[in-house]
Amino acid sequence: MELLPNKHVLFCESITALAGYIRTLPAKPRTLDELWADIKRDAASWPGRPSPDDVVYALDVLFALKQVTMLDDGRRFVLGQAQ
C-alpha cells in the first residue's frame, strides 16, 4: 500500500485513505488488536483490503497529525485530537 494515491494507486488503497477511514470509527479506548478486529469486521464497507501493517502505518499517520491520544497504560489509545 502506498502513502498517497497516484495514477497507479487507487485512493482506497492508500495509507492516507485508510487513516481517514480509521478516523471515522468511534472514539473509544482500544488496543491495536481491537482496532484490527473492528476493521476486519467492517471490511465489507471498505473497497480495499488493508493488511495489519497498513493499519499500523495509518495509525502512525494519525498519531503524527495528533489525531490519536495514547492512554496512560501505553497499550490503549483513543482516536481524536489530544487535549
What does this structure look like?
The protein has one domain (11-79): Arc Repressor Mutant, subunit A, CATH 1.10.10. Helix content is 39%, strand content 7%. The protein is built from 3 helices and 2 strands; from the N terminus they run H-H-H-E-E. The chain has helices at 15-23, 32-41, 52-64; strands spanning 68-70, 77-79. It has a two-stranded antiparallel sheet. The longest helix is centred in the last third of the chain and has 13 residues, at 52-64. The radius of gyration is 12 Å and the shape is globular.
Question: How many structural domains in the coordinates?
Answer: 1
Distance between the termini: 31 Å
CATH class: Mainly Alpha
Number of strands: 2
How many helices? 3
- CATH architecture tag: Orthogonal Bundle
Our estimate of the beta-strand percent is: 5-15%
Q: Structural class of the secondary structure composition? A: mainly alpha
Q: The CATH topology is what? A: Arc Repressor Mutant, subunit A
Radius of gyration (CA) equals 12 Å
Low-confidence blocks of residues: none
Q: Mean pLDDT score, rounded? A: 82
Please provide the ordered H/E string of secondary-structure elements: HHHEE
**Share of residues in helices:** 25-40%
Q: Biggest sheet: strands side by side, in what order?
A: 1-2
Shape: globular
Main sheet characteristics:
2 strands, antiparallel
How is the topology of this model organized?
Layout: H1 15-23, H2 32-41, H3 52-64, E1 68-70, E2 77-79
Helix pairs in contact: 1-3
